[in-house]
Amino acid sequence: MTHPDSRPAGTPLDVPDTAPFPLARTVAMPEEFGFPTGAISFHLTDLVLRATDVVHDGENGTRCDLELTGRHHITAVPDPVCEIDHGGNLDFLPTQALQPTEGGADPAETSPPDPRAPQWTEAARKERKRLETMSNGKKMLADYDKHNEIYDELFRQEAVVDQWRGQTTRDMCADTHQAVDKNTVINGKKYPDENDVDRSYNVHAFARQVMLATELDLLRQKKPTKKEQDKYHEAGKAMVHFGGRVKGTGNTDKKVTEMTREGVYAVVADPPPAVADVPPPTAADMAQYSYQEPGDGGAAASLAPGPYTLGEEERALVRRIHLRAMRRAAAQPDTTGRCLFSGAVSARIPGVRLVTEHGAAPRVELPVFDLDLDDAGWTGSAGDVARDRLRRTQFPQRLLHDAIRARLRRAVREGWPTPQEAPEESR
């Protein structure tokens, strides 16, 4: 007999196709494929969610299990091996530099600066001159100046330009300029985020550092040689290391220790151990900004808490940045390329909880789940590389987790899942 509050669900839900996720570059293609090496990507299509075992959980809650079905595709575009070291002395590259590397995002255009920027820049030059008179200040400038060319390229990327011409960033720049000029508190104000929620100066500042480090990693990934990629990696490490030192002053995205201009100079002149002894970020720390997100899809980061460990809100920002980059790349011609392999994909997601409350957005509690990929047809070098890359990252699955949760929120607003009445004789 079927329990009256546990019934088969109604209409299936379509989930949008995922953007092509770059897996590797310069991968050997099958002989008959038409080009010798290619950049391979992974994406999902024809995704459908079905709810089963729907149980009403109180007045506003519903519990159910979800079944996901669809198709997966491994595609390739031509990507010839670069044998000349364009980032060095134009020598032929060593063999180890010709191995498959991770894909990345596209460059972008620049936009006009804020009309107040010249005034801010002139003030920054003045403060730089003061730093140059200090032993530690001079060393700090030298450490970051060697990456200036890369930072200049970074700030020409479309996503960075868009962020910096946003009103919140402009307001923060203007307020920082005034506070430095008058030696008043720099980080005491709050500013609205994208949801019009007032957040501290520190929240915005650290979010922008996460955004810059992630965009810099995207630039790194699209460089054709390991030597070039290493330059971008070192620039990213320097940026993230600076953020770790800032946290040593008692400032994090969750805590504000008010600082003035003279307070900052005091720390530079005689840094306390909490600032001076912060070690550089490790490879695992830097991997948080790349596709190699720690933890499984939807789980907490596996890194132990430390000066560089990202919280879930910051990790979600990294995912959004990578997703935007993939969508930008997908919008370009010939991005998806030719299909190498395809097959079925499925997942069972038990214990989903959907909650609706009057006047509030629906809440979706979506557990971590595993994808079952039919990879029997993945053959040759390309198949091996695809398996290896997907085994080493949970990023595509985490993006799918986010997409399913967003789709469920929209569906719940429309009254989904609508249970079908069980036949009378089964009650």
Considering the chains and any ligands shown, give keywords for the structure.
427 residues; alpha+beta; eight-stranded antiparallel beta sheet; two-stranded antiparallel ribbon; 10 strands; disordered C terminus
Structural notes for this entry:
It is built from 13 helices and 10 strands. It is α+β, with helices and mostly antiparallel strands and 427 residues long. Strands 1, 2, 3, 4, 5, 8, 9 and 10 form an 8-stranded antiparallel β-sheet that branches. Strands 6-7 form a two-stranded antiparallel ribbon. It is globular. The N and C termini lie close together (5 Å).
Give the arrangement of secondary structure elements.
Blueprint: E1 6-7, E2 13-15, E3 21-28, E4 37-57, E5 61-78, H1 117-132, H2 135-145, H3 148-154, H4 158-164, H5 167-182, E6 190-192, E7 198-200, H6 201-221, H7 226-247, H8 261-269, H9 273-276, H10 283-287, H11 312-330, E8 338-355, E9 363-365, E10 372-373, H12 380-392, H13 395-413
Antiparallel strand pairs: 1-4, 2-4, 3-4, 4-5, 5-8, 6-7, 8-9, 8-10
Helix pairs in contact: 1-2, 6-7, 6-11
Count, helices: 13
Radius of gyration: 25 Å
Per DSSP E runs of 2 or more residues, the count of β-strands stands at 10
Shape: globular
**Poorly predicted parts:** 1-8, 82-111, 293-301, 420-427
TL;DR?
This protein is of the alpha+beta class. The protein is built from 13 helices and ten strands.
